[in-house]
Amino acid sequence: MGVLLVVVAAYILRIEDWRSYTPLTGGGGGAYREGAEVTHREKPEGLARWLTTVDHKDIGILYGIYGLIAFAWGGINIILMRTELMTPESVVIGANFYNSLLTSHGITMLFLFGTPIIAAFGNYFIPLLIGADDMAFPRINAIAFWLLPPGALLIWFGFFAAPLDIGIQPSQTSWTMYAPLSVEQTNPGVDLMLLGLHLTGVSATMGAINFIATIVTERGEDVGWPELDIFSWTMLTQSGLILFSFPLLGSVLVMLLLDRNFGTSFFLNPGGGSILYQHLFWFFGHPEVYILVLPPMGLVSLILPRFSGRKLFGFKFVVYSTLAIGVLSFGVWAHHMFATGIDPRIRASFMAVSMAIAIPSAVKTFNWITTMWNGRLRLTAPMLFSIGFVQNFIIGGVTGVFLASIPVDLVLHDTYYVVGHFHFIVMGAIAVAGFSGIYYWFPLVSGRMYQRTLAKAHFWLTMLGTNLVFFSLLILGYGGMPRRYATYLPKFQDFHVIAGIGTFVLAFAQLIFVYNLVTSWMEGARVESGDPWDLQDDGLKTREWTWFERKRETALTDGGEGTAADGGEETDD
C-alpha cells in the first residue's frame, strides 16, 4: 500500500504543476495570488478526465458510481445469505462462507455504500446550493475519493484471493470485529480488511473537514446562516460527527493491528479486554448511525416540501433538532452494552439519553407530516420515496425506543429483532432517501428524464420487499431467533422463507432501478426547461435549479442541444 501511494504521488507530481493552480474566481478553492496569470484549461477527454478531475460535480458522480457498485456487492452478499437461510441446515454455501458474507455485507453497506453515497450528494450539490464555486479544497476532495477504491479492494481481497490458495481468506469477524475473535483469527485477510477500513476512515475525515470549510467559508454573499438550506445543515452536523468519531475508529483499528501482529494486549488482558474494545468501538459506532441518517433526513426535508406545494413546516425546529441529535449521539453508545454486566447506574443513564434522543427525531417526523398536511401533493417518484422514508423511519425509530429500555433489551439483545430494527433505518430509510435524491436531481445531472413508470415500479417493489424482510426479522426476534447464525431451529423456517422472498423482491426492484438509470441517461427524453419539477410556481425553486437553467441557456447560446424531446412522457399527477 505504501508503494502504491508513492507511485500515485509521483504520477500526480509529474503531470501537474501544483504551484500553477489558481481558483476559478478569487474565492475559495486554492491559494489565490494577486497579479498571477489565471489560465483555464479544457478538461481532458475520456479516462484521463475522471482520473485527474478536481471538479466537485465530477467527484460527486465518482462517489455515486462507487457507492452503487458497493451497494451491488453488499446486495449480492445478502442474496447468498438469505438463500442459505431458506433452510434450517447449512446446505448452500456453508457456515464459514456465510460468516465471511456476513462480515462483508455489514462493512460494505455501512462504510463503502452509506458514507460515500451521502458524499456523492454533498459533493455535487452543496456548492450549488450555497453559491460556492467549488469545494474549499478541491484537491483534498479528489484525494479523499481516491482513497476509497484501494480501501474496498483491501476489504474484499479475501474473496479474490481464496480461490488462489495463497493462505488469505475473507474475514469472518462480523462487521463489529469484536475482540477477542478479531485478534485471535490468524487469517491475513483480517489485517487487509482492517487496513482497508483505515483508508475509508481517513477518506471520510478528509471529506468532513472539506465540507465544514466549504459551508462555513465558501457560501455566497446572499447565503447567511438563516438562509442555509436544510441539506447543508445536516451535512455540516454530519461532518462534525465524523470529525469527532472516525479518529477513534482509526485508533481502535491500529490497536487491533498491533494486538494481531506485534504482541500487544490492548484487548486481550483483564485490564482492557473485550469490554474496552466495545466501549471504544461503540463510541464511534453509534454516532455512525446518525452520520448515515442525518443527511438522508436533510434530503427528505429538502425534497418533500417541493412536492407538497409549501415550505418545510418549522424549519428552525428541524435545524435545532438536527444539532440536538448531533450532540446527544455521543451520549448513547453503551446502550449496545446493556447485557455486558456494566454498572446498573451507568446503564440507567444511557437508557435515559437513548430515550431522549428519540425526541428530536420525533420533531422531524411531525414536521414532515405537517408539511404534507393539506398540501398540494404531487406523487412523483422523489415524493413517493420521501414518504416511504418517513414510514420506514417511524418503524425503525419506534423499535429502537424499545431497545433503549434495559429490561426489553436484555430479552431482545443479539436477536433478529435488533437486525430488523436497524435495517429499517439503514435500508428502509437511508437507501430509500437516497433513491429520492437520485430521482429528484437526475434531470439536473443528466439533462434527461428517467422513465417514470419504471421509477414508480421501483418504489412499490422496494417498499414491498423492505417490509416483507424486516417485519419478518422483527417477528423472528420476538421468537428468540439469535442473529449471526447460518443454521437455526426448524420452527423459525417460515419467517426465514418470507424474508428470503422479500429479499428477492428487493433485488428485482434494484435491477429495475439500474436499468432505468442507464437507459434514461443514454436515451431518456431531454428536459425541456430549467425547472422540470415546476418549483417556480410555488416559490420553491432552489439555487441548484437556477444554476441548471443558466447552464441550459449557455448551451443554447453556444449551439448546444437545449430542448430536443425524444418522445412523450407520462405525467406524475
Automatic annotation (TrEMBL):
One of its GO terms (cellular component) is membrane. Residues 553-573 are annotated as: Disordered. Gene3D superfamilies: Cytochrome c oxidase-like, subunit I domain (1.20.210.10). Keywords: Electron transport, Heme, Iron, Membrane, Metal-binding, Respiratory chain, Transmembrane, Transmembrane helix, Transport. The chain crosses the membrane at residues 59-80, 101-126, 146-168, 189-216, 236-258, 289-305, 317-334, 346-363, 384-406, 418-442, 454-475, 495-518. It is found in: Membrane. The keyword Cytoplasm does not apply. It is a multi-pass membrane protein. Residues 50-533 form the Cytochrome oxidase subunit I profile domain. It comes from the Archaea. Belongs to the heme-copper respiratory oxidase family. This is Cbb3-type cytochrome c oxidase subunit I. It comes from Halorussus aquaticus. The lineage of its organism: Archaea, Methanobacteriati, Methanobacteriota, Stenosarchaea group, Halobacteria.
